[in-house]
C-alpha cells in the first residue's frame, strides 16, 4: 500500500470514529432529555396529587388545574383592562386629577424663596407627578394654556370642535415661571403681557405636548412642566427631542423665574435662571 493510500485509510478511520462519537453524544443527550422530561412529569403529577389530597372531598386534580387556569385568565383580563383604560380614558379637566395631585400652597414670595432652597420641601411639593399627552388647544395667557388630553388609543380621533372649552380641556399654568398678565377680570394688561401670549401662541398652539403635572394651584389649574417637540431655524424646521416651554419662554425674554409660594420647577430651576440672565431685550426680572 502506497503512502497516499495509507493517509486515505487513516482519514477514513478517523472520520468513522468521529461519527461514532457524535452518535454516542447524541444518544446521551437524547437520554438526558428523556430523563428530564420524565422527572418534570413525575414532579407535576406529584404536585397535582398533593393538591388533590389537600382539597376537600370531591375535588380532583382536574378541578385544581381548572381553578388555577381560571385565576390566570382573570389576571390576564385585569391587566389588559388596566392597559386599555389608560390608553382610552380621557382626563377631561383639572378637577378630575384633584385626588391624585397635591395642592400647591399660596404663600409669600419670601417663604417661596426659603422653600426653593430647601430640598426636602421641594421633594414634598413635587410628589406624585401625573404625566399626560395631548394637544395644546388654546393659549390663555403668557404662561397659561389649555390641553386636550389624548390617550394613546385616541390619537387618531379628530379633535371635537369644542376641544378648547372649559369642560373638555385642562387648564395649565407653566411651572416655575411668571409672565406679565394680559387684561382680564377688569384689570388692564401688564407691560409685555400681550407679547408673551403672542409668543406662546405661535410656539405652542395646536402642538402635541407631553405634560408632567406637579399639583393644583389656588385657581384649580394644573401647575405643570410642558414639553413640546423642539423646533429649529426660528420655528420653521422640526428639531430633535423635546423643549421645556417654561425655559423657552424665559429664554425669549417673556418671563421671569417664579419664586412665590407653591413654586415647582420640575428639576429645571438652573436652566430657567440661566435663561432669564441671557434673555434678549428687557428682562422680566425687574417686574
Describe the structure.
With 287 residues, the protein is an alpha+beta fold. Helix content is 43%, strand content 19%. The chain is built from 7 helices and 8 strands; from the N terminus they run H-H-H-H-E-E-E-E-H-E-E-E-H-E-H. The strands form 2 sheets. Strands 1-2-3-6-5 form a 5-stranded mixed beta barrel. It has a two-stranded antiparallel ribbon with strand order 4-8. A hairpin with a 4-residue loop joins strand 6 and strand 7 (237-244). Helix 1 (3-54) packs across helix 2 and helix 6 runs parallel beside helix 7 (269-277). The termini are far apart. The relative contact order is 0.12.
Q: Can you tell me the overall shape? A: elongated
Mean pLDDT: 75
Total DSSP E strands: 8
Task: Report strand order across the widest sheet.
Answer: 1-2-3-6-5
Q: What structural class results from the helix and strand content?
A: alpha+beta
Please write the string of helix (H) and strand (E) elements. HHHHEEEEHEEEHEH
- The oligomerization state is single chain
Amino acid at each position: 500500500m502506497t503512502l497516499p493510500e495509507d493517509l486515505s485509510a487513516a482519514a477514513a478511520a478517523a472520520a468513522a470514529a468521529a461519527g461514532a462519537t457524535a452518535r454516542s453524544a447524541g444518544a446521551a443527550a437524547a437520554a438526558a432529555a428523556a430523563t428530564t422530561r420524565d422527572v418534570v412529569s413525575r414532579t407535576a403529577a406529584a404536585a397535582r396529587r398533593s393538591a388533590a389530597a389537600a382539597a376537600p372531598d370531591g375535588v380532583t386534580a382536574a378541578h385544581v388545574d381548572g381553578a388555577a387556569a381560571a385565576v390566570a385568565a382573570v389576571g390576564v383580563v385585569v391587566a389588559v383592562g388596566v392597559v386599555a383604560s389608560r390608553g382610552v380614558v380621557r382626563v377631561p379637566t383639572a378637577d378630575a386629577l384633584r385626588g391624585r395631585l397635591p395642592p400647591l400652597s399660596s404663600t409669600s414670595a419670601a417663604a417661596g424663596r426659603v422653600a426653593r432652597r430647601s430640598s426636602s420641601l421641594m421633594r414634598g411639593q413635587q410628589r406624585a407627578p401625573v404625566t399626560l399627552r395631548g394637544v395644546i388647544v388654546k393659549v390663555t395667557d403668557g404662561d397659561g394654556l389649555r390641553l386636550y388630553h389624548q390617550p394613546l388609543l385616541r390619537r387618531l380621533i379628530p379633535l371635537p370642535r369644542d376641544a378648547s372649552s372649559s369642560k373638555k380641556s385642562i387648564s395649565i399654568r407653566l411651572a416655575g415661571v411668571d409672565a406679565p398678565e394680559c387684561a382680564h377680570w377688569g384689570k388692564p394688561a401688564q407691560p409685555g403681557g400681550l407679547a408673551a401670549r403672542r409668543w406662546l401662541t405661535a410656539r405652542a398652539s395646536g402642538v402635541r405636548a407631553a405634560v408632567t403635572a406637579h399639583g393644583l394651584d389656588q385657581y384649580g389649574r394644573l401647575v405643570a412642566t410642558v414639553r413640546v417637540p423642539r423646533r429649529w431655524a426660528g420655528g420653521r424646521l422640526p428639531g430633535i427631542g423635546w423643549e421645556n416651554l417654561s425655559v423657552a419662554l424665559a429664554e425669549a425674554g417673556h418671563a421671569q423665574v417664579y419664586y412665590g409660594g407653591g413654586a415647582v420647577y420640575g428639576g429645571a430651576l438652573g436652566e430657567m435662571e440661566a435663561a432669564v440672565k441671557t434673555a434678549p431685550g428687557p428682562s422680566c426680572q425687574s417686574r
